[in-house]
């Protein structure tokens, strides 16, 4: 199964995510994510066989302990893109408060999961929630204008756990299911 480790945003922030997406709704070439499934990815694992789920869960428990991160508050706001404004592939809203804790969790999870044989990340970690993917550049000018000119606030929430999520790709986009939870 295709898996990743994440912090889910609560349902109460879905409307805020959707409101930010609405600011980009006239940009052609964007494929929006489901606001109800909004999350901060800490580590993409790829294929994980069901018999390795326990080992991944143990690794995340060790990572949480090593990171020294207990429950914390995070705020979501501001806009950005990957990899750059010249070549936009992903439009995202960032994490302000809580970014340091998420980064510590990511770094510890990265160490533990690469020790299990998962591929290391090939880019710097930026705590974010993906709003949309840009399939083509038709809406690039509008995206640049919104990202450069606005700094919306989605809201704040309490981070209490890291989740191992399964992702099933379907015709209407990915569907996520929580496979395991590790409390902070």
UniProtKB/TrEMBL annotation:
Domain of life per record: Archaea
E.C. no: 3.1.4.58
Reactions the enzyme catalyzes: a 3'-end 2',3'-cyclophospho-ribonucleotide-RNA + H2O = a 3'-end 2'-phospho-ribonucleotide-RNA + H(+)
Signal peptide: none
GO MF: 2',3'-cyclic-nucleotide 3'-phosphodiesterase activity; ligase activity; RNA 2',3'-cyclic 3'-phosphodiesterase activity
Pfam families for the chain: 2_5_RNA_ligase2
Keywords, comma-separated and alphabetical: Hydrolase, Ligase
Gene3D superfamilies per UniProt: Cyclic phosphodiesterase
Residue span of motif HXTX 2: 128-131
Active site: 39 (proton donor), 128 (proton acceptor)
Motif (HXTX 1): 39-42
InterPro entries in alphabetical order: Cyclic_Pdiesterase, RNA_CPDase
Function recorded in the entry: Hydrolyzes RNA 2',3'-cyclic phosphodiester to an RNA 2'-phosphomonoester.
Annotated NCBIfam families: 2_5_ligase (TIGR02258)
Family designation: Belongs to the 2H phosphoesterase superfamily. ThpR family.
HAMAP family: RNA_CPDase
Alphabetical list of PANTHER family matching this protein: RNA 2',3'-CYCLIC PHOSPHODIESTERASE
Protein name: RNA 2',3'-cyclic phosphodiesterase
Source organism of this protein record: Haloferax volcanii (strain ATCC 29605 / DSM 3757 / JCM 8879 / NBRC 14742 / NCIMB 2012 / VKM B-1768 / DS2) (Halobacterium volcanii)
